[in-house]
Amino acid sequence: SLEAWYMDSSDEDQRKPHKLNPNQPVTLDELKTLGVYYWKLNADIYETDPDLEQIRKEQGYSYMDIITIHKDKLPNYEEKLKMFFEEHLHLDDEIRYILDGRAYFDVRDKEDRWIRISMSKGDLITLPAGIYHRFTLDETNYTKAMRLFVGEPVWKAYNRPADDFDIQRHRNAGH
Ligand code: KMT
Ligand code: NI
């Protein structure tokens, strides 16, 4: 299963785990209260996986593509990694399925603390529209991920502060 924890506040290499000492784990139920959902799948059979098919049908994930994040594979690698690690939000859900390698997704909890979600092969996660988050590779410097989307994809990211959107106001009204 996936592992998540509250982050320390050190400015050290973003690819390091940044666990607190002692570690402060975050459970899947706690992630659910933030609107973050998780499935475990068999990434070896992603091209024909009936479980993935079912999730896509039920959730309406009609669009998909695959991104390989590695310095020799991704054009403008350094620039893109820098963008991904800027705290941002989207107006739609962000859905990612790790097909190979590993990566971290960091999300803000309701008290604005960073939670780091460690994703590896077979982990599928959905981040709700309007949640502040960021992405980084870990020290292995490689991942291959499926990007899913409801309808035509919109990749636009709004860097923090992006508090003027209805979506953000709705989230803030809740707490
Ligand atoms: C995003 O919007 O945070 C991303 O697309 C992260 C990289 S995709 C594995
Ligand atoms: Ni994003």
CATH homologous superfamily identity? Jelly Rolls
Shape category? globular
Contiguous runs where pLDDT drops below 50 for at least 5 residues: none
- How do the helices and strands follow one another from N- to C-terminus? EHEHEHEEEEEEEH
CATH topology label? Jelly Rolls
Number of separate strands: 10
Strand content range: 25-35%
Kindly report the average pLDDT value.
94
Helix content: 10-25%
**What would you report as the Rg, rounded to the nearest angstrom?**
16 Å
Largest sheet: 8 strands, antiparallel
- The end-to-end span amounts to 29 Å
Task: Kindly give the count of domains.
Answer: 1
Bound ligands: 4-(methylsulfanyl)-2-oxobutanoic acid, nickel (II) ion
Number of helices: 4
Structural class: alpha+beta
Kindly provide the name of the CATH class.
Answer: Mainly Beta
CATH architecture: Sandwich
Write structural notes for this entry.
- By secondary structure, this protein is an alpha+beta fold.
- The protein has a single domain, classed as Jelly Rolls, CATH 2.60.120.10.
- The protein is 19% helix and 33% strand.
- Strands 1, 2, 3, 5, 6, 7, 8 and 9 form an 8-stranded antiparallel sheet that branches. A two-stranded antiparallel ribbon has the order 4-10.
- Strand 5 and strand 6 form a beta hairpin.
- The structure holds 4-(methylsulfanyl)-2-oxobutanoic acid (KMT) and nickel (II) ion.
- Residues 67, 84, 94, 96, 135, 145, 157 line the site of 4-(methylsulfanyl)-2-oxobutanoic acid.
